[in-house]
Predict the 3D structure of the following.
Amino acid sequence: MDEIPRIRERIDEIDHKLVLLLKDRYENARLLGRIKRARSIEPRDPERERIILRKVQDAAARLGLEPKLTLPIFKEIFNFSVQTQRNPSTNHTIGLERKKILILGGTGGMGRLFANFANVHGASVKIVGRTIQRTQKTARELAVEAGSISDATASDIVVVAVPMESVVEASIEIAQYMQDGALLTDLSSVKTGIADRIASKVPTAVEYVSIHPLFGPSIDHVEGQNIVAIPFKTGSQWRSFSRALRKAGARVHLMSSEHHDRVMGYVQALHHFALLSLGVALRNWDGELKTIEGLLDNWGTIVEIQRLNPYSPVVRRGFIETCLQLVGMQQSDVSDVERTLWSNVHKWSRKL
């Protein structure tokens, strides 16, 4: 390949990444602006800007970049951020305005993420945590209200973001408080034996859709993210909520509980099992492997997926059988392995 087209293609890729990073910064600035306004804090912080510019100047010098070229770029980014905080755009209405949303488990990672998402898009948000003290502390941090289970009686949407071992009990309990026409949704990573049990106990007039965000709580926005939804009982609230997620850039995929767990058996259970096996096998390794270390950050969910997804034992056995076959691989087997890999890569390139 000629070097000029190759380099231009690489520059195009870098430009795209820069735009995505600006999007991340923009969404964080919007959220920061809302929190600052709630706390009566000025959007501009000159001292912080000076600190950042010093760091940028030092980093530019180390990398051989001209500070006179990089500093103006960051000053423009600051202006963009401050403008975003001062004047929240009214062109990003997505349908959550005036909605009352209650997040059960709002002090955890995913609960905070959905509280921030709803908050920045104009909803009235209340959160409930395990203790009053933690709920109040997190509510102040997020600039939302501290609530209680009884607030479900006046909520349009209730999101249950508790650990999987508690999701059935918590969802069934809070559903009994909900008003007719409201939407109940949970974020459980496994659906069989969980979502169907909840659906059987939800009051007839309450909507229920079990969702699974295929991302972690560290993301800055849902743009380009995948969310699986298992619709049990839908109505106007679900249409508003799903439309809001899509307008914010998320891809919402509708499927059955069985199909979800079968897909997640490979996407999550097998993937995690392979990393767990690799991590344990590398007992004498003294380097670092961030992908494996990341398993421990969400250990409870990892274990529950292995334990509760009905397809986990099947894919684990298949994985072990494949490993045993590869252990005895001969030269004559190499071409078959390559063909299998090419076939799998072709399938993986398809959409969910």
